[in-house]
Design goal:
The structure holds 2 protein chains of 2 kinds. Helices cover 20% and strands 42% of the residues of chain A. By secondary structure, chain A is of the alpha+beta class. Chain A is globular, with a radius of gyration of 17 Å. Helices cover 44% and strands 21% of the residues of chain B. In chain B, strand 18 and strand 19 form a beta hairpin. The longest helix of chain B is centred in the first third of the chain and has 28 residues. Classes of the chains: A alpha+beta, B alpha+beta. At the A-B interface, strand 4, strand 5 and strand 7 of A face helix 12, helix 21, strand 21 and strand 22 of B.
C-alpha cells in the first residue's frame, strides 16, 4: 500500500472525529469533550482511595487489570459532592498515554458541533476561571461547555488548584 | 542524518546488532581459551561480521560498517588461506576492540546521539595486522577478495515475482551532489528501496557494496539502473526524486527488451528469499551450511518477545484468575448443589493456576548471559594486571526475573573486578605462599526458597581485619568499639560508602565507590550482600536476590474500608497489645514496650487519613516491621491473611501529582479490588527515625 493512501486513510479517521463531542452533565450544566480523547465509558466501579492526593482524585479503579486514577468532575469544578448512583458514569480518557477516568453525573450523547457554532469563552473578572473551557458550543438552544482535556490533567494546573484551596 | 530512518527499523537494528555482538564475543572468548581459531569459528565470526556490516550500511552507520568490513576482510583471509602462523592473542585483542567500538556506537544510537565515533585508527591496526599475516604466511597475489564475479546483481521481490509480468522498463541514470560522500552506500539504499516497487533491477557499477572505489565511478558516470516494474513513468520518477542528495535524474522508458536482455546475458542467479543478500555470500554460505547448523542448534528454539507484551499477558492472566473466582465463588450459586459445576470449576482453577505459573516462568531468564559477560571482564583485567585467573561458573542455568538480571549485572562486575584486583595475589606472591599460580574465582548461582544466591568466591589473600578496622577508624566509620565487633560486622564495614582498602587507585577498582554501590543496587531490588573471609584462603561474597520483583509475598491488612498489603519480608511479628504496655510521650508520640525494647507506633488510619471505628490500640492489631535495622509498629484494624500478590505501579498521573510517602505500589486482590502496597522504608523516612 502506498504511503499516500495510508495517510489519506488516517486523515479520514481524524475527519470523522473532528468536531464531535461527547456531552455529559454535571448538575445543571452540560459539558462536552472532544471524542478523540475518549476511550470508553463505564459505569461506576468500586474505588480504592489513595491517601495524600487532592480531594477531587477519588482514588484508583481496576479497569480489566489496568489501574487508572479517577477524578470526580464535580469536585474538580468545586461543586458539591453528590452520591454516585446508577446514572453516574466514568468517562475514560487517554491523553498522551495517561488514562484517567472522569466521574460525571450522567453521559448524554455524541454530537457534532461545527466550528462556526463554537465561541470563545468570555473573560471573567477573575480572569482565570475559564481555563479548562476551550470554547462554548451552541447546540440548538442549549450551550455546551467544551473542556480542554489537556489542561485537566496538566501538572501545573494541579499545583495551582492545590494552592487556591 | 538519520532522521528519515523509521523507528521500528532502528529498534530492530539495535536489537539484532547487540545480539550479534554478544554471539561474536562468545565465539572469540571460546577461541581464545583454546588459543586456536578453528574453521567453524572463523566462518561464524565472518558471517556475524558480515551481518553487522550489512545492516549498519543499510542504516547508514558508515563507520561501523567500514570497521565490520575490515574485520570481515581479515577473517576472509583466515578462511580462504588458512594461514599457519596466526597471533591468536593479537587477533582476539583486535576483534574485541572492534566489538567494543561497535558497542559504544550502538549505545550512542540508543541514546539518540549521533554515532560519531571514528574507527580509523582501529581499521589501520586491523589492516596492518592483515598485512603482517600475509607476509608471515608468505602468500601473494591471490589475497584480494574476488570482486563479485557476476556481471549483474539483481533483486527480485518475492511477492511480486510470479504473478505479474511487468510491462514497463526504465533506464535511470542518477547523479549525486558533488560532496555528498559515500555514493556507493547511497546507491545501495536506492536499490534497496527500488526492490519494493520493481520486479527486476540491474545496476552499474555492480560492486557498490564491496568496493568503496565504486563511489568514484558513480561520481563520474552516474549510477545507472535498469529495471522492470509495472509502475507508470510518473510514479517511478517521483520515487527516484525522493533520493537525498540527488543532483540529476535521467529516466527513460525503454520500448523493447533488447537493452534489458543484453545486460544480463552472462549469468543469472536467482536470489529469491532475500532482497538484500549479496550473491557472493550466498554461494559461500551453501558450503558452510552444514557446519553452521551444528553451531547454531542451541539458539534455534528461541524467539525474542517484547517485554511489554509479556507484561500485558501477565496482566491478562491476572485478570483471568480474578474472573475465575468471580464466577466460581459467585454469591448467586453459593447455596446450590452443583456437583458437576464444582468439578468443572476445579478443573478450571487448576488450568488457570498452571497458566499463571507458566506466564511467570516466561519472564524468567537464566543467569548464563550475565555470567558470560564476566568472562570478558576477567580476560581484560588479567591481561592488564598480569595475573592469571581461572573463572569457574556453577549453576548458570539458574533463572531470575528479567528486571532483576538487568540490575545485578553492574554489581557483579564490581565484585569480579574487586576479586581480581584486590583479592588474587601476583603470581610470585602466590608461589611463595604455596598456592597454585593460577588464581581461581568461582561464580556460583543457586536457588534457595524464594531467593537466588549468587556467590563469588576467590582464593586470594582474603580480607585483613586489622587493616579494615584501621581504615574504618580513619574514615570515621566505626560506630562501636572494635573489640565488641564480630568478624561479620568487621567485614560488613567494607560495604559502607567511602571505604576502600586499596591505597592506589587502579583503572579497574579502588575508587572507594565499588562496594557501597553494590549494596545499594542490591537493596533496590530487595536483595542483600554478605561477606565472609579467611586470611590467606580467600573471600566469599554472597548476594541474595529475590526471584522476581513482580510477585511478592504479602500480608493483607484492613484499615476502615481500605486494604493494604505489607511485604512479608518486612514483618517481624504482629500482636494484640494490652493497654498497660503502651504509653504516650509529652510530644504526643505513641510508644510501645515489647520485651524491654521501646518502639514507636504509627497509626495507619491517621497517616493515610482513613475513617475507621477502631481507634483504641487494644482493639486493633500491631504489626512490627523492620527495614534497614529500624523498627516501627504499624497499627491496623485487622489482618486479612497472607497472599502472593502481583506488584503493579500506581498510575503515572498520580505519581506526577504527588510522590506518596509510604506507598510502594498497588495490587489486585482475589475479588478484583485494589490493595495498596505499603512501603515500609517510606514510613521510616517520614518518621525521621
Amino acid at each position: 500500500m502506498s504511503k499516500d493512501r495510508i495517510e489519506e486513510f488516517e486523515e479520514g479517521i481524524e475527519d470523522t472525529q473532528k468536531g464531535k463531542f461527547l456531552t455529559f452533565s454535571l448538575g445543571k450544566e452540560s459539558y462536552g469533550i472532544s471524542i478523540e480523547f475518549v476511550t470508553e465509558i463505564i459505569g461506576i466501579l468500586s474505588i480504592t482511595e489513595v491517601p495524600q492526593v487532592p480531594e477531587y482524585i477519588r482514588g484508583i479503579v481496576n479497569l480489566r487489570g489496568k489501574i487508572i486514577p479517577v477524578m470526580d468532575m464535580r469536585l474538580r469544578f468545586r461543586k458539591a459532592f453528590r452520591e454516585y448512583n446508577e446514572r453516574t458514569c466514568i468517562i475514560v480518557i487517554d491523553i498522551l498515554g495517561n488514562s484517567v477516568g472522569l466521574i460525571v453525573d450522567s453521559v448524554a450523547e455524541v454530537t457534532a458541533i461545527p466550528e462556526e457554532d463554537i465561541v470563545v469563552p468570555p473573560m471573567t473578572h477573575s480572569g482565570s476561571s475559564n481555563k479548562y473551557i476551550m470554547g462554548i458550543g451552541k447546540v440548538g438552544h442549549d450551550v455546551k461547555l467544551l473542556l480542554d482535556c489537556q489542561k485537566l490533567i496538566d501538572k501545573e494546573e494541579i499545583d495551582n488548584f492545590e494552592l487556591t484551596i | 542524518m538519520n532522521d528519515y530512518v523509521n523507528e521500528p527499523m532502528l529498534e530492530m537494528y539495535i536489537f539484532e546488532t547487540s545480539q550479534l555482538l554478544e554471539q561474536l564475543e562468545q565465539a572469540i572468548m571460546e577461541c581464545e581459551k583454546s588459543n586456536v581459531y578453528p574453521q567453524e569459528a572463523v566462518n561464524e565470526i565472518f558471517r556475524l561480521m558480515h551481518s553487522i556490516k550489512g545492516s549498519s550500511a543499510m542504516m547508514l552507520f558508515n563507520e561501523v560498517s567500514t570497521l565490520a568490513h575490515t574485520v570481515e576482510d581479515l577473517f576472509y583471509f583466515l578462511r580462504e588461506q588458512k594461514p599457519k602462523i596466526v597471533d591468536c592473542a593479537k587477533l582476539s585483542d583486535l576483534v574485541l576492540e572492534s566489538i567494543d567500538f561497535v558497542k559504544v556506537e550502538i549505545e550512542k544510537i540508543k541514546g539518540r546521539d549521533e554515532a560519531d565515533g571514528k574507527a580509523t585508527l582501529l581499521i589501520d591496526k586491523l589492516k596492518d595486522f592483515l598485512l603482517l599475516l600475509k607476509s608471515q604466511n608468505d602468500c601473494e597475489g591471490s589475497l584480494e577478495r574476488p570482486k563479485t564475479n557476476k556481471n549483474q546483481q539483481y533483486y527480485i521481490a518475492v511477492e511480486k515475482k510470479s504473478d505479474m509480468l511487468s510491462e514497463n522498463k526504465y533506464k535511470a541514470t542518477i547523479f549525486f551532489e558533488e560532496d555528498c560522500k559515500m555514493e556507493n552506500i547511497r546507491a545501495y539504499t536506492i536499490i534497496h528501496r527500488l526492490a519494493e516497487i520493481s520486479e527486476e533491477i540491474f545496476y552499474t557499477p555492480q560492486d557498490i557494496c564491496e568496493n568503496e572505489d565504486s563511489s568514484a565511478d558513480i561520481r563520474e558516470k552516474g549510477f545507472q539502473i535498469l529495471m522492470k516494474t509495472n509502475q507508470p513513468y510518473e510514479k517511478v520518477y517521483e520515487f527516484l526524486m525522493q533520493t537525498i542528495f540527488l543532483k540529476e535524474l535521467i529516466l527513460i522508458q525503454l520500448e523493447d527488451n533488447q537493452e534489458f536482455e543484453s545486460s544480463y546475458t552472462a549469468q543469472r542467479t536467482n536470489i529469491e528469499n532475500s532482497a538484500d543478500k549479496i550473491p557472493y555470500t550466498e554461494q559461500k554460505q551453501d558450503k558452510n551450511q552444514s557446519s553452521k547448523e551444528v553451531y547454531n542448534q542451541g539458539n534455534q528454539a528461541m524467539i525474542s518477545v517484547n517485554v511489554n507484551k509479556l507484561d500485558k499477558l501477565m496482566d491478562l492472566v491476572g485478570e483471568m484468575v480474578i474472573a475465575e473466582s468471580m464466577v466460581t465463588k459467585n454469591p448467586e450459586i453459593q447455596h446450590l448443589e452443583l456437583e458437576n459445576f464444582q468439578k468443572a470449576a476445579r478443573q478450571l482453577h487448576k488450568i488457570t493456576a498452571e497458566l499463571q505459573d507458566m506466564v511467570m516462568s516466561i519472564r524468567m531468564v537464566p543467569l548464563s548471559t550475565t555470567f558470560l559477560k564476566m568472562h570478558r571482564i576477567m580476560r581484560d583485567m588479567c591481561k592488564k594486571l598480569g595475573k592469571e585467573v581461572r573463572l569457574e561458573v556453577v549453576g548458570e542455568e539458574t533463572e531470575v526475573d528479567k528486571n532483576i538480571i538487568e540490575r545485578i549485572s553492574d554489581p557483579l562486575m564490581h565484585l569480579i573486578r574487586n576479586a581480581i584486583d584486590h583479592g588474587i595475589e601476583d603470581k610470585e606472591e602466590r608461589g611463595q605462599r604455596g598456592k597454585d599460580k593460577i588464581g581461581t574465582i568461582v561464580l556460583e548461582a543457586k536457588n534457595q526458597g524464594n531467593d537466588v544466591l549468587v556467590i563469588i568466591k576467590d582464593d586470594g589473600r582474603g580480607l585483613n581485619k586489622s587493616k579494615i578496622i584501621q581504615k574504618a577508624r580513619e574514615n570515621g566509620l566505626l560506630e562501636k568499639s572494635e573489640t565488641d565487633m564480630t568478624d561479620k560486622e568487621i567485614y560488613s564495614l567494607i560495604l559502607l560508602p567511602g571505604f576502600s582498602t586499596k591505597e592506589n587507585i587502579t583503572e579497574f577498582s579502588g575508587r572507594g565507590v565499588g562496594m557501597d554501590v553494590v549494596t545499594k543496587n542490591l537493596e533496590k531490588v530487595g536483595g542483600s550482600v554478605a561477606v565472609e573471609s579467611t586470611e590467606d584462603v580467600g573471600t566469599i561474597i554472597t548476594l541474595k536476590i529475590p526471584l522476581t520483583l513482580a510477585i511478592i509475598d504479602g500480608m493483607n491488612i484492613k484499615v476502615g474500608d481500605s486494604r493494604y498489603t505489607i511485604p512479608i519480608v518486612a514483618i517481624k511479628e504482629s500482636f494484640r497489645c494490652q493497654d498497660e504496655s503502651y504509653f504516650t510521650d509529652p510530644d504526643d508520640n505513641e510508644m510501645i514496650m515489647v520485651r524491654g525494647q521501646c518502639y514507636p507506633i504509627l497509626r495507619l488510619h491517621k497517616y493515610h487519613q482513613v475513617k475507621t471505628k477502631i481507634k483504641k490500640i487494644s482493639e486493633g492489631i500491631l504489626i512490627m516491621v523492620e527495614q534497614n535495622e529500624k523498627v516501627i509498629c504499624l497499627f491496623a484494624d485487622a489482618l486479612l491473611g497472607q497472599q502472593q500478590v502481583v506488584v503493579k505501579a500506581l498510575p503515572n498521573y498520580i505519581k506526577n501529582i504527588k510522590n506518596i510517602n509510604g506507598i510502594a505500589g498497588c495490587t489486585l486482590l482475589g475479588d478484583g479490588s485494589i490493595s495498596l502496597i505499603l512501603d515500609v522504608g517510606g514510613f521510616m523516612d517520614s518518621q525521621r527515625l
